[in-house]
Amino acid sequence: MISPVRRAAAAATACALGLGTALAVALPASADSHDFVSDGVAWWDVVDDAVQIIDANPFMYDLFGSGIDVDGWTYDAFDTFLDGFHVSAGVIDYDMVMTPVSVDINPGGVSTFVATGEQNLGGGFEIEAQVTLTLAGSYARWEIDTAGTDGLDVWVTGQLGSGPDTVFPHVTPTTLVSASTSTDAPIIGYQLSGAGAAFDVADGSGEVHVDLPLVGSATLVMAFQDYDPCSRDAALAAMVARVGSLGSTFGQTITMLDSNCFTVDAPSAFPAGTSTDQTLALLANPALFDQTELELFLEENDEVHIQLLTQGLPAGMSLEIDPATATLHLTGTAAAGSYPVRFAFFRVDSDDDAYLPLLSTITLQVVGDDEAADPELAATGASDAAPAAAMFGGMLLLVGAVLGGLRSASRRRARA
Fold first, then answer.
1. How many other C-beta atoms can be found within 10 angstroms of the C-beta atom of residue 278?
2. pLDDT per position as a tens digit, 134-180
3. Prediction pTM value
4. Residue among 145, 156, 153 at smallest CA distance from 216
5. Which of 53, 85, 160, 174 is such that its CA lies 20 to 30 A from the CA of 289?
6. Do residues 294 and 209 both lie within one domain?
7. CATH code where residue 129 lies
């Protein structure tokens, strides 16, 4: 079986080759499914008649504008979401049959699916519905309009890939956050709006249940947060802080946080117009990720090499990684200023499939002629925030990834 990651990669590659242009289709009654990427998520088997997503995982599309796509750490977000549009007259539950109306797919952009349905339950009970699913950035949004006969109950459900490992550490009447105790799945935030709409969830169920109004509209907005093995708790806190505004931030790309797996030496301030040549050590966080594990992650061979990308590096400067010594090499000249530079390094296999990124930030202080190169101007390295609790079943999983044992079949993207 071809993994979702491999199938999404093919869609992304087709887009990069000019083959993934926008698809806008007025559909007949028959259904179809689609694999493609937005700017932050790879979507698998989006079924247009049921407006459901079979699976999804965070995906760094065109990371830092480099043209390089990078698979994240987490995967298996769903076991089908929505897995059913349910109607009940109190005795028998029905799954409403939906009919696709239109599909507009834009790889790397905004994609929209519209479907309608109606159900006659007999005894004078009837209901009609329209569902619009929009996928953009790191978000999915279902807009559901219903009109039914009094006495009916209407709800939708979605199954999470985390299954019995699912926990809901944040629950309010209008917002949820789900996570996995096994940490294979991304952290997902949910925001619900609409009179009469309500969540019904329980830890260990692996299901999100949403009660819908019998007559009216409801909107469910969902967002995904990827994280590396050392940063789960920080990512969870970030989603809890974000979840109340998902409706207004829909379509944004949610990038990974800076890693708690390591810190990097702070670069020394240097004069404008004068060449600098600095070596910055990457230092593992010993509580979560010791230096041996970092070196294993960085180890290169005939099948794997390490690549680094930057964002915000000023013109005239270069930042390179030396995996053999676990160091960064900063060289060049720059105009006076303070430059936050975000960087990511990740593994690339022999098929040029990139995966498992670690991110951090340094700040370059370039002083003008009238300023002294004061050491106090030097930036700190990666965040010194209290490290998150170690997850992913310990760092042995990461070592397994380094040695090619983790997700060797399911995490690498094959280019068609």
1. 16
2. 999 999 999 999 999 999 999 999 999 999 999 999 999 999 999 99
3. 0.82
4. 145
5. 160
6. no
7. 2.70.98
